[in-house]
Specification:
Strand content: under 5%
Structural class: mainly alpha
Radius of gyration: 18 Å
Oligomer: single chain
Largest sheet: none
Shape: elongated
CATH class: Mainly Alpha
Number of domains: 1
Bound molecules: heme C
CATH superfamily: Cytochrome c-like domain
Order of helices and strands: HHHHHHHH
Number of strands: 0
Length: about 110
């Protein structure tokens, strides 16, 4: 295989990784899948959040103290969470964990 072909393949791999990283942008996922109920700030003060009695994530010890693994499980198994959340992949939920940790106030 020529050098040129190799470079082209590497370029393709880099582009692929970049797009995967983009797809797993935690902030974007949070906006897309969680904001409706939990709100930009995590306080759950959106119309849907209020009507569903969403608790504020801010300062929530459960979010602050849980490991990433425990949080992924908690999000997936929460009875209030429906299909769009339950069907997210582990990777997607793992990408969202730092976002909710940050909203909770973790350093
Ligand atoms: C349809 C509304 C809705 C959506 C969408 C939603 N949630 Fe929730 N979530 C709730 C409700 C209701 C609860 C249960 C009440 C509570 O604990 O606030 C909850 C609970 C939680 C909890 C548990 C808090 C605790 O202390 O036990 C976490 C963490 C959480 N959600 C994270 C997420 C994340 C991350 C997403 C996006 C991937 C998401 N939620 C999407 C409504 C929603």
């Amino acid at each position: 295989m020529g050098l040129r072909t190799r470079w082209m393949m590497m370029g393709g791999a880099v582009a692929l990784f970049a797009s995967l990283a983009w797809a797993l942008d935690g902030d974007a996922l949070y906006k897309e899948k969680c904001v409706k109920c939990h709100g930009e700030t995590g306080k759950g003060d959106t119309p849907t959040g209020k009507s569903m009695k969403v608790q504020s994530i801010v300062g929530d010890p459960k979010v602050l103290d849980a490991s990433a693994e425990e949080l992924v499980k908690a999000i997936r198994t929460n009875k209030k969470h429906k299909e769009p959340v339950k069907k997210m992949s582990d990777e997607e939920l793992e990408a969202v964990v730092p976002v909710i940790k940050r909203l909770a106030g973790a350093k």
